[in-house]
Amino acid sequence: MASPNPPTTPPPPPVMYRRRSVAGPIVLIVLGVLFLLGNLGYLSWGRLGYLFARYWPVMIILWGLIKLAEHYDAQRRGYRPRGLGFGGIMFLIFLVMLGLGASSAWHYRGALSDEFFQIDDHPGFLLFGTPYNYTDELQQAFPAGASLRVVSDRGEVRLVPWDENNIKVSVQKKVIADSQSEADKVNAATKPTITVAGDQVTVNANTSGASGNHRVDTNLEIFLPRKAAAEIATARGTVAVHDRTGDLKISNSHGDVEVGGIQGNVSINLRGGSVRAENVRGDFSLNGRVSDVNVENLQGSVRLTGDFFGTTRLAKIANSVHFQSSRTDMEIAKLDGELVLESGDLRASSLAGPTRVITRSKDIRLDNFTGNVHIEDNNSDIELTPGKLPLGNIQITNRRGRIQLVLPANAAFQLDAHATRGEISSDFAGVDVENRTHDSKATGSVGSGGPQIHLSTERGDIEIRKG
């Protein structure tokens, strides 16, 4: 017999929705307010950078306190506590990385911004502190026959020739600090020095170790006897040397170098910056990572090795030229005209061979050249116009690019040309051309014969024209 009052199913508990966390929005509001104060001028950007670099962990603590309060409130109300979530974890990682980077920048006083982001020295870009300027001057006797060594951590170095037997150093210094008194202490601890050891005189800017966590820029203008050899080592800043007799060595981690009127050999090691050299009566060598290069009117040889990211211009080089980078290996016996080397182009005129160019993805144009020429290239076009007769031997190997050779109408040569998946055309009657779909050839002897011309390309045409 059924029970008159069957048991009833209890109603389901009410659905308890979890509330969204307010920790993230609060942190964003705090950041937004700080940046707004910076835009309105109530806080300087330097002060904002200082506050963030020193106190960024406070935002994590604030976030944690909010999350902890939300956790206990959710348990009290019967909600399931929320975790950080994927977005919160990613934001936390980003905040920690940004904070650690800012703290490192504060510790090294702007080194991070300069080295990695190339922020210049304009006061508006000084993240931490205020610049204070100082001047100083040092002078003492310079021993006869001695050489100079300059050591500088940050700042310009300029050598000025004079006819005195003394060395004079004019100092212009900028200290980044939070107060005048603090800057005065840093200035007193970073006085440049002149020391003499045997036949070497050393000028030390004295900023690398004594400045502590403060940034110090020291510009040195050094008046030196004209015939003294010099060696300059600096980490950052422009180096300029003019009108000297004696060998010159320059090492610079980041900054432009300018030399001119040097009667001696010049050696430069550069990790970032541009180089300009004119009127050097000696050999010139440049090594490192360089932007633009301009070398003109040299009586010796030129050797450039490293990575070159801008425009390289060479003109009027009386001796050999050797250029070597990750893409290009080039040798020229003499350059009476001009050579311009860019990312996708190599143009030269009035050069004397033997000339050898091995490169890739670079259009080549040589005009008015003499002597033997050897070129290897790909993914580019090659145009050659020799100068006065007689011709030298010419050997060109190209892939996926055109070859054009413009020769004097009365030139004498022996030709062997081959084009894979390309055509060959010639203006010279003595050349036998055979064009096929996948393989074209041209051979022959023009005039009384003479130098050998070997041309080979894949997926490109070959043109032999009368100039």
Based on secondary structure, the structural category is alpha/beta
Low-confidence stretches: 108-127
Proportion of helical residues: 10-25%
Tell me the fraction of residues in β-strands, as a range: 35-45%
Notes on the structure:
The protein is α/β, with parallel strands linked by helices and 467 residues long. Among the domains are: 23-117, no CATH class; 130-237, no CATH class; 361-467, no CATH class. The chain is built from six helices and 31 strands. Helix 1 packs antiparallel against helix 3 and helix 2 crosses helix 4 (85-108). The longest helix has 24 residues, at 85-108.
Summarize the structure.
With 467 residues, this protein is an alpha/beta fold. Helix content is 19%, strand content 45%.
Identify the notable features of this structure and list them briefly.
single chain, 467 residues, alpha/beta, 6 helices, 31 strands, 19% helix, flat
Produce the secondary structure layout.
Elements: H1 23-40, H2 45-55, H3 57-77, H4 85-108, H5 111-117, E1 130-141, E2 147-152, E3 157-162, E4 166-177, H6 180-189, E5 193-197, E6 200-204, E7 216-225, E8 230-234, E9 239-245, E10 248-252, E11 257-263, E12 266-270, E13 275-280, E14 284-290, E15 293-298, E16 302-308, E17 312-317, E18 321-324, E19 329-341, E20 345-358, E21 363-369, E22 373-376, E23 382-386, E24 394-399, E25 403-407, E26 413-420, E27 424-426, E28 431-434, E29 439-446, E30 452-458, E31 462-466
Parallel strand pairs: 2-6, 2-8, 3-7, 3-9, 8-10, 9-11, 10-12, 11-13, 12-14, 13-15, 14-16, 15-17, 16-18, 20-21, 20-22, 21-23, 22-24, 23-25, 24-30, 25-31, 26-30, 27-31
Antiparallel strand pairs: 1-4, 4-7, 5-6, 17-19, 18-19, 19-20, 26-29, 28-29
